[in-house]
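Q: Can someone sanity-check these two? First one:
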Amino acid sequence: MSVVNSIDCTKQKVRAIIACSRVPEDPYHAEDTLDWLLRLDPDADDALQIAALGHDIDRAVEERKVNREDFRDYDSFKAAHAKNSAIILKEIMDECNVPPYVANEVYRLVCCHETGGDPRSDLLKDADSISYFYTNLPLYYNRNGRERALERSIWGYLRLSPKGRRIVQKIHYPNEELNHVLKVTTRMASLDGVERS
């Protein structure tokens, strides 16, 4: 199988799995994260694109997903989620015969997608976080209520780069309550003294 075919095989399998997620926004978030990645870096390579598409795949594999209630804190949960998604993606890439240099980079990127730490994983983290605000927040708010949506939004906003924050600050929702959540999110991040310049 050629590299192009192995990449296409992986993307097709990832999309098929995510389409079955019980989290209704997951398919949209996967595609939107990929879209934001390509807006932020139109030359993003195959590893970044696969990582963007499949970074949350563990949520779609019910029998293997990690559950928030099994972890003491949110950051530990997110680290386990990232690692689990990377493992699932690695298995898919092995089935599709993705070259090891691509598969290893996808694995690394997905393991780091919640925390970043280098320019490539920071780019993925920004695409993921921007997509949360554009795609996930409305449904997350409806499912979990204002307080949890606000907590999750502050967490997501604080991990954005300055460029990512400027993008998110321009969002306007048709629902005024969501606009209020976003406004409070940006204000609380600034007041906490953790706003990065």
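And here is the second, same format, sequence then tokens:
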Amino acid sequence: MTDTRIDGWSGAELAAILNLPRVEVLHEVTSTLDVAHLLGAEGAKSGTLVIADRQTAGRGRAGNKWESPAGSGLWITILERPPDASGMEVLSLRVGLLAARALDRFSADPVRLKWPNDLYVDGRKLGGILTEARWQEGRLEWVALGVGVNVREPIQFTGGAGLEAGTGRMEVLFELVPAVRAAAACRGELGSRELAEWSSRDMARGHDCTQPARGTVLGINASGELLVAIADSVARFRSGSLVLDPLT
């Protein structure tokens, strides 16, 4: 892979300041997740970071494409090798929670969360998280933590948010990477404090939804399941997409 610079920084310089074993800085890739998995298969150490100026096929959930134009956002993946699979079911939620906390300082409004992996500001999408694990004979080998953040408000599509004007991508990177790594180091289900903070940032709680079922969003539980009130019962969803009813 050919190392380059992003906003004046080389991979070696970023690795030194972030205390990481390796940083791959690339001008253009299909997805930083793809590169991270290749590095994982080659034996890359935990904490390896891949950052690209542009992604041509950035990935969202359910096969959706994430728009990742050059110069406008932060498109990164961090490779981690957890000692076990404890907490994997809530990992993307944990990353989102700590990422929102880190990004607050760059936003005039609090960064909100939408289950299972979206970051919002003022009702518009700021970013997203996608985690992909690789297993061998039932054992977790590594997990790739992909994070995309619109540093500048996107002009190529509507409904997107950016951070405050003048925010630099490396400023965001220096806050975001430690936050993501801290989330990856946590084990087990979400704790009471995490659930309370999630609830305070949850943009969907109390709103009606049409997917994954018609009902009213109540929040999430310690296992990361979405709770939806349907008639006189509460349904729990471990996966799927949350679509809010635009009429409510």
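A (reply): Looked at the second one. The longest strand covers residues 124-136. The radius of gyration is 18 Å.
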